[in-house]
């Protein structure tokens, strides 16, 4: 993965859109896309530091100079397992990824029902009313119950 791909990956992983990132960095949306496409290879230090901050990572990770500590830990633990257990870990990981992707897709399609709440999910300072919180909890409880009916075997 190159710098741009890591930026895009982390942005999407955190559910941030390019406009939010552009505002945070003080650049245009097209500049963010140029970073992600690798069209701007030499990032100014202040931009790199802000990117790392907003993406909850390090400049070293974005530049590809370091792996995350979780990557190293997972690889080391995995290598210690016998082949049969490695296979089970792979199967479990694939199932977790599938579930995660289903949750992300579920979030994209269904949480839009409450436009006010969905519009402010990336704003950490947003305060919600008790009714909004209760509604979201009920919605998530229903989604969890549907999930377990579908996937719990």
UniProtKB/TrEMBL annotation:
Keywords: DNA-binding
A GO molecular function held by the record: DNA binding
Domain HTH cro/C1-type: 7-62
SMART domains registered for this protein in UniProt: HTH_XRE
Source domain of life: Bacteria
Pfam family, one: HTH_3
Classification via PANTHER family: HTH-TYPE TRANSCRIPTIONAL REGULATOR XRE, TRACRIPTIONAL REGULATORY PROTEIN-RELATED-RELATED
Record-given protein name: Helix-turn-helix domain-containing protein
Lineage, opening ranks: Bacteria, Bacillati, Bacillota, Bacilli, Lactobacillales
